[in-house]
Specification:
Residues 2-101 form the Glycerol-3-phosphate dehydrogenase NAD-dependent N-terminal domain. Keywords: Oxidoreductase. Residues 183-330 form the Opine dehydrogenase domain. By secondary structure, the chain is an alpha/beta fold. The chain folds into two domains: 2-192, NAD(P)-binding Rossmann-like Domain (Rossmann fold), CATH 3.40.50; 195-356, N-(1-d-carboxylethyl)-l-norvaline Dehydrogenase, domain 2 (Orthogonal Bundle), CATH 1.10.1040. Helices cover 43% and strands 19% of the residues. It has helices spanning 10-21, 33-41, 66-70, 85-92, 110-120, 166-176, 187-191, 196-205, 208-213, 226-245, 256-259, 272-279, 292-312, 317-330, 351-360, and strands at residues 2-6, 25-29, 45-50, 53-58, 61-63, 75-77, 101-104, 128-132, 137-143, 146-152, 156-161, 181-186, 217-218, 283-284. It has an eight-stranded mixed beta sheet with strand order 5-2-1-6-7-8-11-12, with helices on both faces. A four-stranded mixed beta sheet has the order 4-3-10-9. Strands 13-14 form a two-stranded antiparallel sheet. Strand 7 (101-104), helix 5 and strand 8 form a beta-alpha-beta unit. The model has no long low-confidence stretch (mean pLDDT 97).
């Protein structure tokens, strides 16, 4: 199938390389013209490294022209950080066509940002927007055109906006991710599967000392201790309580299953945590005030959780606490703004009105 991948980070390179490796026609869009020129000069190739070896794959197109990238494709995948979504959504909005599927893995309810951008651009194409609970790859770039894939997702819960187009969207996404996709309802359900706002805030806040002391620190290895895991589980319980209060059913993909040796398989499958830490790729420098774990997962992800909890009538003391502490670390007030329902233009909707919008679209 024809797939457009938007962005130039770890997830985008893993997506472009892995899709090309599977035989799809892949077009990669990046905003930086110098990087695009360099990538073309290198033959528009990506070196993919995984458990089976090294794979040199060629992309059909590398471009700064988003219209050229998405014209005629079935699937548009954008794994860019949530704080980059508004700009990309505005650039993409005029070019969407009937039947195209925009897949955001994960998105922090970014599906609404892309859908609203298309609406504001006057584009009435019958496109659909979907998001899931995690990036489909545990991955890191090892060079300008080289990416290492440590794990491929085994289960991806996917929510679709509008949900009455879910059948088509899931079929298209399923051809790119065979035997991996699991429907989980509407886009808000998909957003409330996002693992990033659950796993990363405790790891960066409770490891703030060693993160700032050591040149490199692996928050998933030495940084994942029993005390932190207990806090992570408690924060995850707040997420699951919000899902239940809004009427979303199981499975809720509790993060505890990511670490478990038995029981239900989580999104990355059994043993993924050990393979992640064994790779060494997550022993890295983290600038707390700048890193996406803080700016995306904590600030945007937890503000969405707290805001949605308010609609659901659920208390989220830990999520609020991490917002306050994260803001203090950055010298800002994270309890104000962020990605709330108000910020998304949905704050005036009652629960039933929001559910109708999620089902039927604008």
């Amino acid at each position: 199938m024809k797939i457009a991948v938007l962005g130039g980070g770890n997830g985008s390179f893993a997506a472009a390389g892995d899709f090309a490796l599977s035989g799809h026609e892949v077009r990669l869009w990046r905003r930086d013209p110098d990087q695009v020129v360099a990538h073309r000069a290198a033959g528009s190739r990506i070196l993919v490294k995984d458990h089976s070896g090294r794979h040199d794959v060629r992309l059909a197109l590398v471009t700064t022209d988003i219209a050229e990238a998405v014209g005629g494709v079935e699937l548009i995948l954008c794994p860019a950080p949530a704080f980059a979504q508004p700009d990309i959504a505005r650039l993409l909005a005029p070019h969407l066509r009937d039947g195209q599927v925009v897949f955001l893995p994960p998105a922090t309810f970014g599906s609404m940002i892309f859908a609203q951008a298309a609406r504001e651009a006057g584009n009435r194409a019958k496109a659909s927007f979907a998001e899931t609970g995690t990036l489909p790859w545990l991955t890191r770039k090892h060079g300008p055109f080289e990416v290492a894939i440590t794990i491929r997702a085994k289960r991806l819960p996917v929510g679709v906006f509008p949900s009455d187009q879910a059948s088509h969207a899931l079929e298209v996404i399923g051809r790119a991710f065979p035997d991996v996709i699991e429907p989980c309802g509407d886009a808000l359900s998909g957003a409330l599967m996002n693992a990033g706002p659950i796993i990363h805030p405790p790891l960066i806040v409770m490891n703030a000392g060693p993160i700032e002391h050591f040149e490199r620190w692996d928050i998933h290895k030495e940084g994942t201790q029993a005390a932190i895991r207990r806090v992570t589980d408690a924060l995850d319980a707040e997420r699951i309580a919000v899902r239940e209060a809004l009427g979303y059913g199981t499975p809720h993909f509790p993060l505890a299953h990511h670490y478990a040796k038995e029981g239900e398989i989580w999104m990355y499958g059994r043993g993924s945590h050990d393979r992640l830490t064994d790779s060494g790729d997550w022993r890295e420098r983290i600038v707390l005030t700048e890193h996406r774990y803080m700016r995306e997962d904590l600030r945007l992800g937890l503000s969405l959780l707290v805001s949605t909890a308010g609609l659901a009538g659920v208390t989220t003391p830990l999520a609020k606490a991490f917002l306050a502490i994260g803001g203090a670390i950055c010298g800002e007030d994270f309890t104000q703004g962020g990605r709330t329902l108000d910020a998304l233009g949905l704050g005036g909707l009652h629960r039933a009105e929001l559910q109708t919008l999620l089902r039927e679209g604008f």
